[in-house]
């Protein structure tokens, strides 16, 4: 019930890069039409099945366009579904048409357009159009594509030749127009009564920019009658979609755009920050003072929905009729959603580069700059390269590498770094004795060297600078950052304490706590300062200031934050995936190389780590430790209640019970019972588990059977392809799913907790349409679905199968007719619904016929 109602106020989506705008009256209110409709508004009418456009001859173009802030990036598929009620014969070419257009900048100057129209001779056609390289005109317009003809008799040229018009036959009233982008190419496809399969009718180049707008339109310059069409919806599958703000997605795929601001009795409060429209007829001043017996308030009639219900009958947990007093008059409560009905929250935020002055701790990693180099002595008369008289050549400044100087460094901390390597850092700061300069690469400059400590491409890094002669207290650092991919960033930071160029480094003093990335069970990660480690717990001060004590039973490994790692993050990740029967220590030997030592990590405190090797405790400095992987241990029990997992900037993830929202802090109780307060501004997304829906990729199969055709076994993967790349199916990104190779059988214990299994099964694009497998689904041994020849050159298949009362679910992908060639299969969005949460019967079938070309199998039998 919930999923069918929330769509009335939100947009639908099936993945992180999906956008679905239904144009039916129930999901497309008048305010949305006023904002997104264009042209003659009298020609636009909201109806039960879609947006109806009836345009008289000679009227301006009218239709619907995407919100101005929407951006569609990377490869994408854009599909419009529509019903043609009347398409009249025009007096001239292009006189009456229906179409879809896309633009990278201004939608009225589209890069590509696909039309359905009648020719003056009565032929029913499609016509693809691309933007002209000159002047921005469109193919087929009067000013584009005409060739000038040579006139041998002089005088003005004759009328230019007509442009070339590429047309394709059309048939049918209910059609789908589709634009598929791969790289910089855009392909036009149509679905109608001409063929059972989609037809490709052209391809254009639209350049590298993101698509900034899509419009569905009707034009009627000189048709004999009005054009009458019903636009049903627009669906976009893309690598990335931005511009719509925070997206809250329910377990049914419905998406609301708004900000989560509170938790009330297990419900998430979503605020709509769109300013409310002023009342159409504001009351005159003083009316409220008149006696009630004179002016009786008129009782508003309830708004009727196409289904026959009224707005007042909608559940209070979804729509708020009286949200109460608001602190911000522009904000209103949009919905209250039970947490077990929420699938995910995705924030559209960009990390801002920030730098913080820490002080002058007992750290010495760098020193002052070098001295100018001396020119090579030239032979007499060798002055070809010498500057003219009166010009002094600049001194040659060699590159200076950071080296300890015996003086404590100035410490700055950077946050909000991009996922890219840093090529150059330039820092300037005025002092009491002149300007001070530091650079990461000092080649050719008198700047002093910067010591950078950053593990891989982390979003945090430490900068260490040699203190200049003058005091920097209350002075501003001007910092310019250049990434290896060519992008730049600038930021300022103020020194909030004194600096001393003579403050000595004390090697006997304790070393400050080192940065560490802590890998936890269930793919969770934390990052911060490693404070201590005991036989039972690891203590870490997080980047947002909380001190957490993580039980070692949940810790998989620790990767220390060194500036010059020998152990690469990729190598460490492989070690994490294959833990052994004892702990594995990665330590630097005297020659600087990394050695691996098996034993038991016993403790860490201050600057020392204690490690038991061959039954004897040994101690080494933490600064020698690259990391350690703890011995294999049983996975923790899955949550029995709703468990959100929070993803923060820098790839940090932490799960726990969401307790409350307090302004800019979210209080979360960790799985081990400790309360932490997450900074809301750093949260990038939240995914919920343990609710009314579960993805198979979040569950552990009770049995895995993998039989290679030859000798090499290919293990199944979760949420990535078999080679570790992002999932894609039918040219669209997939966030959750399973990748398998024939022959693979996965068995999951259901314990009679679920009622419906849903998935879309197809082939990884790397199969190159060559795979053929025998695909089957069983519940307690009973076959629910069978396709003995599932093919990579056919559309994916959408499944919705009943599993109520079943103890086990088994997914089988067996060898097909072509041995195992190309047998890389994806179970996309494979999920299980609990009782009361499954979509209404037939919902999947409707979606399949109206939104994509994937056939749907809905089995009526029960296990």
TrEMBL record:
Chain intervals with Pro residues compositional bias: 386-397
In terms of superkingdom, the source organism counts as Bacteria
Domain called Glycosyl hydrolase family 98 putative carbohydrate-binding module: residue spans? 690-834
Residue ranges the record marks as coiled coil: none
SMART domains referenced in this protein's UniProt entry, alphabetically? NPCBM
Among Gene3D superfamilies, the record links this protein to: NPCBM/NEW2 domain (2.60.120.1060)
Q: Where is this region: Disordered?
A: 358-402, 838-863
InterPro entries assigned to the protein according to its UniProt record, in alphabetical order? Galactose-bd-like_sf, Glyco_hyd_98_carb-bd, NPCBM_sf
- Name listed for the protein in its UniProt record: NPCBM/NEW2 domain protein
